[in-house]
């Protein structure tokens, strides 16, 4: 099973792709979506286009995405929510099962501490994917963490996944 994690943002959208086969996790790819437009709506279009491209290329069956948390800056929070909406729409269009996790839920599941720092998350991602000393950008490591948590939470049973819309 291929699982894609997404850490949504306005200009930096992290992605991480893993495979789970016979209980083993394997790193496939991670990085940032290419967002070239400086315009707000153009950036949303870039997010959709790049996310669609990744789905066609890697064919995940599950999307694990970070839940929106309250932002100190309301404008930024709304922009992240818009980006997240575009990603969810694309996931539905491609028929992906969708899992949503709060940041603290991911940190707790990965490190055992819900307020772990970025270094602890990266370290555990590397250990779980058998890549000790893994060097990766925070947004991509957070996306891989989301995918890992989804892989541990009963994805073999589709009843545990959200299907937002069935075509």
Summarize the model shown.
44% of the residues lie in helices and 20% in strands. It contains five helices and five strands; from the N terminus they run E-E-E-H-E-H-E-H-H-H.
Give the spatial strand order of the biggest sheet: 3-2-1-4-5
Helix-residue proportion: 40-55%
The count of DSSP E runs of length 2 or more, i.e. the number of strands, is 5
| Chain oligomer state | single chain
SS-derived structural category: alpha/beta
What features would you highlight for this structure?
alpha/beta, 20% strand
Question: How would you describe the overall organization of this protein?
Answer:
With 167 residues, the chain is α/β, with parallel strands linked by helices. Helices cover 44% and strands 20% of the residues. The chain has helices at 40-58, 74-93, 103-111, 118-128, 138-152, and strands at 2-7, 14-21, 24-32, 62-66, 97-101. Strands 3-2-1-4-5 form a 5-stranded mixed beta sheet. A hairpin with a 6-residue loop joins strand 1 (2-7) and strand 2. The longest helix is centred in the middle third of the chain and has 20 residues, at 74-93. The mean pLDDT is 90.
């Amino acid at each position: 099973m291929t699982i894609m994690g997404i850490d949504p943002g306005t200009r930096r959208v992290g992605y991480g792709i893993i495979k789970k086969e016979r209980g083993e996790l394997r790193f496939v790819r991670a990085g940032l979506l290419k967002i070239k437009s400086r315009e707000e709506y153009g950036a949303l279009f870039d997010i959709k286009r790049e996310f669609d491209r990744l789905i066609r290329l890697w064919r995940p069956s599950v999307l694990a995405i970070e839940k929106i948390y309250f932002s100190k800056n309301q404008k930024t929070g709304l922009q992240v929510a818009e980006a997240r909406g575009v990603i969810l729409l694309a996931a539905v269009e491609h028929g992906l099962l969708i899992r949503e996790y709060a940041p603290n839920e991911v940190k707790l599941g990965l490190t055992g501490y819900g307020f772990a720092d970025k270094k602890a998350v990266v370290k555990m991602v590397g250990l779980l994917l058998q890549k000790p000393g893994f060097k990766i950008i925070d947004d991509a490591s957070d996306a891989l963490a989301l995918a890992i948590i989804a892989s541990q939470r009963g994805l073999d049973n589709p009843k545990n996944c959200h299907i937002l819309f069935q075509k």
